[in-house]
Amino acid sequence: MQNFSRSERIAVAFYFIWFFVHLAFFFYSEESSDNGQFWPFITAGKTLASTYDVSEFLLYIGVPLILFIAYRIVYGVAYDESNGGHRHTSTSFFISFLDEKIKAEELTQKINKLNNQPANYDHLDELKADREKAASKGVKTWLDRVEVKKKYKDFQS
After folding, report:
1. What is the rounded average pLDDT of the residues 62-86?
2. pTM summary value
3. Of 6, 21, 22, 134, which residue is most buried, by most CB within 10 angstroms?
4. Does residue 1 lie in a domain region?
């Protein structure tokens, strides 16, 4: 339930209400099954209690459940890979990871300057360029490339 979006949680809540309403209809109905009538398409003189049986119960409970499961199968994986109801997305974690690497490299270059050692900004420029690419192209598609995975394997662990 944690991986459900807000709208999916609302749909599940409505489904539970729907389920218990139909469960009440099922237990309220008479014990005889009337396969000739299907509620709400009943003839005059028939009531819900006399026509509601197991076939209506299974149909009215099963169809919404099957539709919800089908929706989760089709759209659930994409949702889980994105935000998924978590506080931060993997995108923001990777951008933060790159920001920290940039800060560390800037600090290293400042220390080099203070120690009168040569400062090399190539790696810093490369990190900044990678951060821009990740932000503009989207981390998910950019991080899936093999050379990028090799380069940032310390992020994966």
Report:
1. 71
2. 0.44
3. 134
4. no
